[in-house]
């Protein structure tokens, strides 16, 4: 057992209470704008006050809905094996979702993605030890626009066994996506018991839940499929410029999502998450690598933990356009802070350019970063006293401790042993191996990973069933 798990906090208990209470006041007095008719009917059944499509939530309803949300979610892989649990301070990573471009490893140009790019990306995700979930990471252009959401789910599950973070672009797509998920399970009850996918649900800042996003939230709740809030306050543009103000807005938007989902199905699994940013006043952009963006994320996550809910954040990504030094330090800082904060699901590995671009090279480098983060949060272990004195007594015999029994016993447990991505060679060895940059080593690793057989090949009958669903839907 670790002596102490390394942690970070940006809010104290008093301010968490104040944020929560103000968020409830916002929902009671300013309300949430709702476009979805099914949600309107749920609210009308409860007799909620409203002005047109702006509905006002009383605090007692919010509290009741909060009490029925599960405090943990266990995700299962394609074959139904238990995979990861989102609870407490357990930390897991998946690539960011829905990039519209890919960084071509051969031409080194950013371009629109194709389905073959997404297949390669999914196969590499399957091979990465520390990226424990996959995502519908890349929007590709060689299928009809109307099929782009469900088709990504189809290809992802056809090429990678890991649980997946996904989402809908059209209300009509949910039934197809549910059919794809059901092909991997024996029944609807089995899918509810062994969830394979998380559906992102993104409210529109400030204080609005759109028709599409609300419908996705309701549909997932009815099927007991986990939904993940991705609230996106933009500090200084669509949210208060103060970090605590953006955290409060995020809290209000997520509380509204909890009410919607729990009215649709009491006990529906939910994840308190987001993708906030600060507005860059110089360039008019939304920097995900800004330290203030990361600080808002940390505050958002602390509020989710304060409510005893599974948590999510978009971190470990970069605004750089290539996997360079900026990409490294922004991804490293984000992953490290997310790990210290105990974010249950961290989305972002592989992403560049304000969440718009996926990069295989960055994904592989990020996997190494995540491995280091996981070692850090495992902490320093107490193996029993005395800690050093007895070992040091033996140094006099050989004048080295490399062959000492304690070294042989504990080095694999104590040390994170990096792959070839991390350069720890001597300078002469580095030159003998081609003087390669981290990015070039990542490209070499990508080629090797793509040559490896699938860790868990898809069953032939399941592959056929998924193909039939896709053909019929197309």
Q: Can you summarize this structure?
A:
With 474 residues, the protein is of the alpha/beta class. Helix content is 45%, strand content 12%.
Question: How many β-strands, per DSSP?
Answer: 20
Number of helices: 18
Strand content: 5-15%
Average predicted confidence as pLDDT = 97
Distance between the termini: 52 Å
Radius of gyration using CA atoms only:
23 Å
Text of the CATH class of the domain at 67-378:
Alpha Beta
CATH topology of the domain at 67-378: TIM Barrel
Shape: globular
CATH homologous group name of the domain at 67-378: Trimethylamine methyltransferase-like
What would you say the CATH architecture of the domain at 67-378 is? Alpha-Beta Barrel
Give the strand order, joined by hyphens, for the main sheet: 9-10-11-13-15
Helix content: 40-55%
Helix/sheet category: alpha/beta
- Low-confidence stretches are none
Largest sheet descriptor: 5 strands, parallel
Describe this entry's structure for a reader:
The structure is a single chain. The protein is α/β, with parallel strands linked by helices. The protein has a domain at 67-378: Trimethylamine methyltransferase-like (TIM Barrel, Alpha-Beta Barrel), CATH 3.20.20. It is 45% helix and 12% strand. It has 18 helices and 20 strands. The protein has helices at residues 13-29, 37-45, 59-67, 115-127, 148-159, 173-182, 188-193, 211-222, 243-264, 291-306, 325-341, 360-378, 389-393, 395-398, 405-414, 427-432, 438-451, 460-473, and strands at 32-34, 50-51, 54-55, 73-76, 82-86, 92-94, 101-103, 110-112, 134-135, 164-166, 197-201, 208-209, 227-229, 234-235, 270-271, 277-278, 312-314, 345-347, 351-352, 357-358. Strand 19 and strand 20 form a beta hairpin. The longest helix is centred in the middle third of the chain and has 22 residues, at 243-264.
